[in-house]
């Protein structure tokens, strides 16, 4: 009927014990006898895969109440069915309240005894089957989840590689500024982390910031590579790199990195006070990604030599950028950035100490 059934039997009365043994033999079970309550606990400890405990309420050392309480309060044992044998009707309610699964009224009725025991063993086996099935399902879910996470990681890596190579397309046009792509990527992610932007968005920014200047592909060399300050009409043409970048990455809302890159490309030259380009966005109208990138982009550009400028010192860079707090830059983000400037300098890794004259942001970042 059932295979490998294990039953712990604790009964003081020899006559009742004989009846229980005779009945349990019908199930071809392994019978584990216990002479007192402590032996019941010891037997369960030694045989955790028990299918049923049949126990007299009145036992020495530990009575049935205490044994039942310990079984039902133990996280590893509470699912073991316990059938209590008692001759007192008032005791039935007490043991059921403590968690007993069933009771046997003395004197025993063999037919009733057989059915009650059989029901409890059946219920235990069904519960074990359900538990094992759930465990198998959980393992399968874990495997599939791990596989999905690996696939997502590969997809993100692919997006990163595509973004990096698309960003490098601008590098071939503007080799002296394109080399800072990875630096902008790392600094942007770190500033976002310090600003307590959610982790997934920090990773997204890490990828998307690579695309901030991709629109420079569409700017003529005579303007893009011109040493010195641009003429007004040349500067108007230079401004178009934001719109060009936005157009290159338009229509990709199903691809988070490209969509974030589009927003950054369009907005990273917007200014906190509304005097930026191309749309004159103001304050928090500017996406947080673009506000982050604008800070690290300017920071890296000021410290780096370009065809139209020498490298600025750290002190000069700090002074210029802090002067633009609340004008070009989000003041809270900028303050946070300079609270951790040593960390950013370490990440940026290219500190220049050349003494240069103070210049405006417009003259430095075109």
UniProtKB/TrEMBL annotation:
InterPro entries registered for this protein in UniProt: Cyclic_di-GMP/3'3'-cGAMP_PDE, HD/PDEase_dom, HD_GYP_dom, Sig_transdc_resp-reg_receiver
Keyword annotations: Phosphoprotein
Keyword Endoplasmic reticulum listed: no
Entry annotated with the keyword Phosphoprotein: yes
Domain Response regulatory as annotated: residue spans: 6-121
Residues of the HD-GYP domain: 155-353
Domain of life of the native organism: Bacteria
Protein name: Response regulator
Taxonomic source organism: Geomonas diazotrophica
Species classification: Bacteria, Pseudomonadati, Thermodesulfobacteriota, Desulfuromonadia, Geobacterales
């Amino acid at each position: 009927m059932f295979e490998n059934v294990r039953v712990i039997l604790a009964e003081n009365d020899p006559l009742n014990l004989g009846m229980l043994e005779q009945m349990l033999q019908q199930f071809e079970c392994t019978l584990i006898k216990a002479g007192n309550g402590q032996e019941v606990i010891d037997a369960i400890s030694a045989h955790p895969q028990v299918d049923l405990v049949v126990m007299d309420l009145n036992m020495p050392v530990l009575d049935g109440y205490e044994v039942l309480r310990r079984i039902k309060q133990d996280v590893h044992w509470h699912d073991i069915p316990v059938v209590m044998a008692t001759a007192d009707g008032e005791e039935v309610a007490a043991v059921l309240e403590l968690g007993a699964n069933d009771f046997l009224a003395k004197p025993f009725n063999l037919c009733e005894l057989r059915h009650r025991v059989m029901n409890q063993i059946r219920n235990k086996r069904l519960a074990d089957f359900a538990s094992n099935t759930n465990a198998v399902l959980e393992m399968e879910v874990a495997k599939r989840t791990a596989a999905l996470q690996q696939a997502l990681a590969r997809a993100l890596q692919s997006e990163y590689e595509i973004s990096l190579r698309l960003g490098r397309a601008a590098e071939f046009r503007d080799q002296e500024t394109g080399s800072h792509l990875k630096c902008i990527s790392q600094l942007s992610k770190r500033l976002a982390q310090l600003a307590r932007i959610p982790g997934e968005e920090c990773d997204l920014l890490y990828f998307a910031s690579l695309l901030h200047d991709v629109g420079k592909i569409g700017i003529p060399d005579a303007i893009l590579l011109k040493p010195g300050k641009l003429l007004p009409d040349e500067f108007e043409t230079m401004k178009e790199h934001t719109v060009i970048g936005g157009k290159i990455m338009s229509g990709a809302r199903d691809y988070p990195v490209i969509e974030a890159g589009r927003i950054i490309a369009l907005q990273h030259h917007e200014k906190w006070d509304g005097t930026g380009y191309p749309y004159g966005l103001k304050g928090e109208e500017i996406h947080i990604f673009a506000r982050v990138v604008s800070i690290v982009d300017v920071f890296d550009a000021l410290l780096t030599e370009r065809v139209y400028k020498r490298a600025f010192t750290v002190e000069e860079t700090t002074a210029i950028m802090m002067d633009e707090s609340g004008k070009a830059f989000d003041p809270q983000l900028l303050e946070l950035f300079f609270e951790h400037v040593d960390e950013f300098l370490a990440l940026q890794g290219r500190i220049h100490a050349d003494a240069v004259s103070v210049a405006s942001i417009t003259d430095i970042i075109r």
